[in-house]
Amino acid sequence: MDWKRWYSELEQDDEAWEVSEEVVLRGVAQLFFCGQNSQVEVEFIVKADSEEQAQAIQEPTEKQKRTWEQYMSYASTIHSQILKSIHHHYTSIVEKYRNVYSSWGEDPDEYAPYVERAEQLLERLQPVSILISDASEEDELYLNFSCSWDREHGLGVHIKQMKVEHIQGAYTLYDLE
User: What distance lies between CA 137 and its chain's CA centroid?
Assistant: First the structure.
């Protein structure tokens, strides 16, 4: 893929700039996750200390680019480990979700069934976005999924040095740092 061209085509938030605001550069990329081909939104968050600095941001930082390109080059290798980690996390929370769906009068097997193998989660899981902040360390990113068991919040996977660091709801995962 022509990364230089892709970076230059990223869309930039067009909100009014304020001092100490972040600029979000967004793009779409194809991601092949454990046999699933998905379009995911990629967000690079770049801090700006002034309006002038914010307006000058055209591309992600070099550190963000290296993180993204390394992730994409190792994606096929690390995705199976990510899926196994998600499965481990899922088995620890599935009972909680089953109880909630039962209390709502819904069939828990429809949204949060018991599964034995990680691959069984693939039909219940879809990668939707990747977030890379300039405040993060190099080789650190967040991979976000929609999932059947938590349709409102989804699932977030914090990846550091191309290994799973933590898994939690997508909207609460970023509060850990």
Answer: 16
- Is the per-residue pLDDT at 176 higher than 50? no
- 8: closest CA among 30, 24, 27, 22? 27
CA–CA gap between residue 67 and residue 8 (Å, rounded): 17
Q: CA-to-CA distance for 77 and 3, rounded, in angstroms?
A: 20
Q: Are strands 11-12 and 163-168 parallel, antiparallel or unpaired?
A: unpaired
Helix H segments across the chain?
Answer: 3-8, 51-56, 62-103, 108-111, 170-173
pLDDT digits (tens, 9 = 90+) for 37-87: 999 999 999 988 887 888 888 899 999 999 999 999 999 899 999 999 999
CA distances from 32 to 15, 40, 66, 118, 174 (A): 32, 10, 19, 16, 24
